[in-house]
Specification:
Helix content: 55-70%
Enzyme class: transferase
Distance between the termini: 159 Å
Radius of gyration: 51 Å
Strand content: 5-15%
Order of helices and strands: HHHHHEEHHEHEEEHHEHEEHEEHEEH
GO molecular function, one term: ATP binding
Pfam families: HATPase_c (PF02518), HisKA (PF00512), PAS_4 (PF08448)
Number of helices: 14
EC number: 2.7.13.3
Subcellular location: Membrane
């Protein structure tokens, strides 16, 4: 020290300066620390307050969202036929109850908030039984009642949204007021902090670091709050879009929808209602409905007010499937059918009535035309068939006279050969006419009498076949007919009708097979409960497009014939009807190279007694 006198002169002031600097720095740090503590306490308390207000905003927003979701699910359940919509509705109601439980556990911060919360809870208490009643009616009446129940739901939804929106607006206003106040307090505290840190750069830097961190946290919080507000706006937009969709459903509905208030003044009159009535919506009272909208009874008289479905619903009486007429301004008359129901508030007080109606004019006209056409067709068919029966019956007498006369002439020995040949042609033609008339009479009996009449008794199908084939061999000399019998052919059948079946089937085979080709008839009685009869012939097969219609009346096959039959195309139809009258079935198979086979299966009816006879 002795060697550095300047140092001895420098160090004491420096020590004082250092001490003073340290003192000032300590004071500045103390002031800064105090200011920082005050600012931190202020910001912390304000952050807690804002956080609490924000929780209130979030809670009310969750309540608005839960209510919106509940109303959406309720609308879906009322409008659409799907079980999953009922499950979605129950889940939405559960979520809504959970949010309400959180709201009731939260202590209101202001008298206004307490009043709004109590008002919402009262509204919700009134709405709950109404919503339960609407859901029960929808489950009982089905989706057809959806538009009507949706209209009843509208007042509940409007009142709930109104109370919730008022509560949400109050919470948001309180939040923004607190937020603005927090900003003002923060600015004041920052000024005090700046004064405290003017003494030292270190304290200022420390304060800057602290403020930067606080600012970053505040920016993050503001970003989160901005996102929350954006979600709130999105929820409001979704509600508005849902309301717009509901308006479109009502306006574009295929049924007319008319809603009145409690005084009977029409408040809703959609596009379909305007089309049905030919007039636009007019706010007229109930006594003016008939004259304004052209309401008439079904006999064309003015519809009394007491009989109007909408007025009856306004008086508290539900009306379903009512029908009335509407005379439009252009003079046309339409027939309407609809349902009307009264509307009530959650507290049960009447709020109006709703009517849904559809235009049934075209449907009723089509039904009347169809009934008239069916009646004309039935009358025509019955007349035709009766005419055929009468003509066939009346022709029998002159034909019998012709046939008898021809037979007398055939046994006469006085006729020369030339005249005898002509008499044979007359007899043959008369026999064909007799067969044609018999077929016509059988056809008429089957169509007008409910089926072919049969008189079953114990008979042997093989014996019936032998007799029928002997007659056919006599009338068709040169034919090759064979009979094969397997088992026994006993059964309870109409012998005359089965002889007719065999004659028609074998005659059909002779008609469509080459001359001289074999015709095989088989009776298979091996089965205990039925006997199978088959007739097989060779020749060209039946075309595939003809097989499905082969047994229709007045139809003939298109195969090349060996000779003209002179028939009416009723033979196979009559055969089928006789088989059906015996409880059997008839089928046909035809293949190239294999020929054609008709197969009839006839039940024996009493196999036990028949087995005893055989044994």
């Amino acid at each position: 020290m002795a060697r550095f006198p300047l140092a001895r002169a420098f160090f004491p002031p420096m020590r004082k300066a250092v001490a003073g600097f340290i003192f000032v720095a300590l004071v500045a740090m103390l002031l800064g620390t105090s200011s920082l503590a005050v600012l931190h306490s202020t910001l912390h308390s304000q952050d807690q307050l804002i956080t609490g207000y924000m929780e209130d905003v979030v809670l009310t927003q969750e309540l608005v969202t839960a209510n919106t979701h509940l109303m959406h699910r309720t609308s879906d359940f009322l409008l659409f036929e799907d079980e999953r919509y009922l499950a979605g509705l129950q889940q939405a109601r559960l979520n809504f109850g959970t949010v309400i439980a959180q709201l009731t556990r939260h202590e209101p911060r202001t008298p206004e908030e307490r009043r709004l919360v109590e008002h919402f809870l009262e509204t919700r208490t009134r709405a709950s039984p109404v919503l339960e009643r609407i859901i029960d009616r929808r489950l009982k009446e089905g989706p057809a009642s959806g538009p009507q129940l949706l209209a009843e739901l509208q007042p509940i939804r409007v009142e709930l949204e109104k109370t919730l929106n008022a509560l949400a607006d109050h919470e948001r206003e309180r939040y923004w007021e607190a937020r603005y106040q927090t900003r003002s307090n923060s600015t004041h505290a920052l000024g005090m902090l700046a004064l405290g840190f003017l003494g030292t750069v270190l304290v200022t830097l420390a304060l800057g670091v602290f403020l930067l961190r606080a600012l970053r946290q505040r920016v993050r919080a503001e970003t989160e709050r901005a996102g929350m507000l954006e979600r709130e706006h999105a929820a409001h937009r979704a509600v508005e879009e849902r309301q717009a969709l509901l308006d479109l459903v009502i306006e574009q509905s295929g049924d007319a929808i008319v809603v009145t208030d409690a005084q009977g003044v029409i408040q809703l009159f959609n596009a379909e209602a305007e089309r049905q009535h030919g007039v636009t919506r007019q706010q007229v009272s109930a006594p003016e409905w008939a004259s304004t909208f052209g309401l008439l009874t079904l006999d064309g008289q003015p519809l009394p007010l007491s009989e109007t479905p909408l007025y009856r619903a306004l008086e508290g009486e539900p009306v379903s499937n009512a029908r009335w007429l509407v005379r439009r301004p252009d003079g046309s008359v339409r027939t309407l059918c609809g349902t009307a129901s009264p509307l009530h508030r959650p507290d049960g007080s009447p709020v109006g009535a709703v009517l849904t109606a559809r235009d049934e004019t075209e449907r009723l006209a089509l039904e009347q035309q169809r009934d008239e056409s069916l009646e004309r067709l039935r009358t025509t068919a019955e007349f035709r068939e009766r005419f055929l029966g009468i003509v066939g019956h009346d022709l029998r007498n002159p034909l019998n006279a012709i046939t008898l006369s021809a037979r007398v002439l055939l046994v006469s020995e006085a006729l020369p050969e030339r005249e005898l040949k002509a008499v044979r042609r007359i007899a043959s033609s008369a026999d064909r006419m007799v067969r044609m008339i018999s077929e016509l009479l059988d056809f008429t009996r089957s169509r007008l009498g409910g089926g072919m009449p049969v008189d079953p008794s114990l008979a042997d199908l093989s014996a019936i076949c032998r007799e029928a084939l002997e007659e056919l061999e006599t009338s068709h000399p040169g034919s090759r007919l064979s009979l094969r019998v397997l088992g026994h052919g006993l059964g309870e059948w109409d012998s005359g009708r089965l002889s007719q079946v065999i004659s028609n089937l074998v005659g059909n085979a002779l008609q469509y097979s080459p001359e001289g080709s074999p015709i095989r008839v088989t009776v298979d009685g091996h089965a205990p409960h039925e006997v199978m009869l088959s007739v097989h012939n060779e020749g060209a097969p039946i075309p595939e497009d003809v097989l499905p219609e082969l047994f229709e009346p007045f139809r003939r096959g298109t195969r090349e014939r060996t000779h003209n039959s002179g028939g009416l195309g009723l033979g196979l139809y009559i055969v089928q009807q006789i088989i059906l009258a015996h409880g059997g079935t008839l089928s046909a198979e035809s293949h190239s190279g294999d020929g054609t086979t008709f197969t009839a299966r006839l039940p024996r009816d009493n196999p036990g007694r028949l087995a005893m006879l055989v044994n």
